[in-house]
Design goal:
Blueprint: H1 7-14, E1 24-30, H2 36-43, E2 49-53, H3 60-75, H4 78-82, H5 88-99, E3 104-109, H6 111-114, H7 120-136, E4 139-145, H8 148-156, E5 167-171, H9 176-183, H10 189-199, H11 203-207, H12 215-223, H13 233-242, H14 247-258, H15 263-269, H16 276-287, E6 291-294, E7 307-310, H17 313-322, H18 336-339, H19 342-359, H20 361-368, E8 375-380, H21 385-388, E9 392-398, E10 402-409, H22 417-430, E11 441-448, H23 454-459, E12 464-466, H24 468-474
Parallel strand pairs: 1-4, 1-5, 2-3, 3-4, 10-11, 11-12
Antiparallel strand pairs: 6-7, 8-9, 9-10
Helix pairs in contact: 1-2, 3-5, 5-7, 10-12, 10-17, 14-17
């Protein structure tokens, strides 16, 4: 498949090729399917390249045997084929000797599996780096993994490798403006958005798209039969990121069902214990970008009001549509009307577009013309917001004494009623502690996938009305 985007990341990895006389240590991490290996392979084109890959679920001895076997496939040397050791330092010295002084890029892929989830490999790598790779070779050694908690805590922030890692790349979701035109050629921007809202900016999922079918038919084909790729994807995601522990999936399932929960509610609705266990699970889910925490901006009680919600678009799609029918899924796909009920699909699409806008606040600030101004951004709500209807999903609190309130809509028809809805929220906001005594100006912005009816424009109520085409030009 063609390689799309990631220009700045490729350029960062290629910088070493301008000075190959010195060895470099880099770390690349991100969600499974985000394209980490493909990125490194693309950056290594035309160079001497060796890839060593960890084996999922295997113990340390199996990892070491696989490492030696991989080295043998590159070298063809019988002494490598026969070599045996249960010490990683011996294996790293063997690799260093083979590399010699010829420039090379070496990838340790899925490092958390190679290390069998332990830190022993990292400390031994530190010794080998200081005493062999750096002084004796001209190597760009890239440590890569999908388990963000391991790569961040045990590698990037480890005492063993402190000051030794020259480059850290955290690969995040790609933009719709890159993936849509590349993999959904001929489909409208509305279909491109619909597919993106379901699978997020994950290149692998876009590679699966069949351009002869609509976005919804693609999602149906990929999701609702026993062997469909996305039907089985959640289990693969949780096992590869967190092993066999059920706690992580339990938390995400509860968050998806409830929309959001505070920490105490998460613990009450799952088998997590209060204290360190719950903290670790929630922290690792956030590092994996499966879950995000948030609180109302400009509120001194924000810590008390902190909430958690599902951040990964595919996980939200899975638990909304696939999970409820999973026991009825067989070798043939379920009828599409059973998979995507009209009302439920419209609600999911609207909430997902709100999440999309929250993920692109920098682009929105640029589009609205205040990116040069310091600001805080996030939701605004009170304890009684569910009753009052005054929850604001996206609010910019700006240093120039302006509150920019964004109303987000994904409807075919946005009528003049939207003005009344926003005015009710403005009234509550004006009398809130966020504004009291500060005399903020409140600017109202409508972000709508489809243009609203003419009367909304004619009313002149909104300082800016943003449609999908304009948003995609910045996001």
């Amino acid at each position: 498949m063609k390689f799309v985007g990631r220009k700045s990341e490729i350029e960062a990895l290629k910088q070493w090729q301008n000075r190959p006389a010195a060895s470099q240590l880099s770390a690349v991490y991100g969600r499974r399917r985000i394209g980490k290996t493909r990125l490194v392979e693309e950056a290594a084109r035309g160079c001497r390249f060796l890839k060593f890959e960890g084996l999922e679920g295997e113990d340390e001895k199996a990892q070491q045997r696989h490492f030696i076997h991989t080295l043998y496939t590159f070298s063809g040397k019988r002494e490598h084929q026969l070599f045996r050791s249960d010490n990683w330092i011996d294996l790293f010295i063997l690799l260093s000797d083979y590399l010699g002084d010829e420039p090379a890029i070496v990838l340790f892929d899925e490092l958390q599996w190679m290390a069998a989830e332990k830190t022993g490999l990292v400390s031994r790598l530190k010794y080998a780096w200081d005493n062999y790779f750096r002084p004796n070779n001209r190597v760009h050694l890239i440590l890569c993994g999908s388990v963000s908690s391991f790569l961040v805590k045990k590698v990037v922030n480890s005492k063993a490798l402190y000051g030794r890692i020259d480059l850290v790349l955290h690969l995040r979701a790609m933009a719709l403006s890159e993936l849509g035109p590349a993999f959904m050629k001929g489909r409208s921007i509305y279909e491109q958005l619909e597919y993106y809202l379901a699978v997020g900016g994950i290149p692998k999922y876009f590679e699966l798209f069949n351009t002869s079918q609509s976005a919804r038919l693609n999602l149906h084909r990929l999701s609702f039969s026993r062997d469909a790729f996305l039907f089985n994807e959640v289990n693969r995601l949780f096992v590869s990121h967190f092993g066999k522990s059920p706690h992580y999936a339990n938390v995400v399932r509860e968050l998806a069902a409830r929309g959001f929960l505070d920490r105490s509610s998460v613990i009450d609705r799952t088998s997590l214990a209060h204290g360190g266990g719950a903290t670790r699970v929630l922290e690792e889910l956030e590092l994996a970008e499966f879950v995000e925490s948030y609180g109302p901006i400009g509120n001194p009680e924000a810590r008390m009001l902190k909430r958690y919600r599902v951040a990964d678009p595919f996980l939200r799609f899975y638990y909304t549509f696939i999970f409820p029918v999973r026991t009825r899924v067989g070798p043939r796909a379920l009828p599409i009307h059973q998979c995507f009920p009209d009302v439920g699909y419209a609600v999911w699409r609207g909430l997902s577009f709100e999440h999309y806008c929250r993920q692109h606040t920098e682009a929105l600030a640029a589009l609205l013309g205040f990116s040069a101004v310091r600001y805080d951004v996030g939701p605004w709500f009170r304890r009684d917001d569910m009753k009052s209807g005054a929850q604001i999903d996206l609010l910019f609190k700006r240093a120039d004494n302006v509150l920019t309130l964004c109303e987000v809509k994904h409807r075919r028809t946005v009528s003049a009623d939207v003005i009344t809805q926003v005015e009710n929220k403005v009234e509550v906001l004006l009398n809130s502690p966020l504004n009291r005594g500060r005399d903020f100006t409140i600017e109202k912005v409508l972000i709508s996938v489809h243009p609203p009816v003419p009367s909304v424009y004619e009313a002149g109520y909104f300082s800016k009305i943003v449609d999908l085409r304009e948003l995609l030009a910045f996001a």
